[in-house]
Amino acid sequence: MRRLILFMHTTLDGFVAGPNGEMDWIKVGDEIFDYAAQRTQEADTALYGRVTYEMMQAYWPGAGQRPNASKHDIEHSSWYNAVTKVVISASMQGQLIPKTRIIGGDVAAEVAKLKQEPGKDILMLGSPGALQPLIANGLIDEYWLFVNPVLLGRGIPLFTETGRKADLALIRAQAFSSGVVCLHYTLK
Questions:
Q1: If we measure between CA atoms, which residue out of 46, 58, 34 comes closest to residue 6?
Q2: pLDDT attached to residue 165
Q3: pLDDT tens profile 94-108
Q4: Comparing C-alpha atoms, which of 26, 64, 18, 21 is closest to residue 145?
């Protein structure tokens, strides 16, 4: 069975974006990019909600070809273009996009089926709204939470009431010079 791995930036007080979707507080850089790339290369599928997919699709397909593209832009653009993208969206149903699959309806059942298909791991990058039914149904196998040293006080929360308890085991905590700490958990 394929594993579903969540990669998410969060604040210390548990928000993934500000009240209006602001993400200008996220600290990234080569140190974090290199660390995350080790895991990214073990996946052949990316899972997104519609909003995150549209944001990614607007940048990553050509990011590696831009003048002065960074090492991360080149590597992640290559990965993004190679993997299958699965988008959770009701409004995109019926669209035909190369290397992209649109799912809707019973999202938990669709993702459970996706995990049964042959292939490497599935990475979910961002997409806090689409994430909630997956947490509620116990479909996330690993959490890679990049905790940023900031308190927003309000915004879009990482976790909402899922109605499900999940016991996790800490695999690794990795601190970065920016003050970000990646907490890597797996389901017990």
A1: 46
A2: 85
A3: 888 899 999 998 999
A4: 26
Residue-wise pLDDT tens digits, 10-41: 999 999 999 999 999 999 999 999 999 989 99
The identity of residue 133, as a single letter, is: P
Tell me yes or no: is domain 4-187 CATH 3.40.430.10: yes
Q: Give me the residue label for tokens 């993997």.
A: 83
Contacts of 39 by beta carbon, 8 Å cutoff, 6+ apart: 5, 7, 123, 144
Beta bridge partners of 172: 184
**17-30 core/surface letters (b: 16 or more CB in 10 A; e: else):** bbeeeeeebbbeee
| Interval 31-52 mean pLDDT | 94
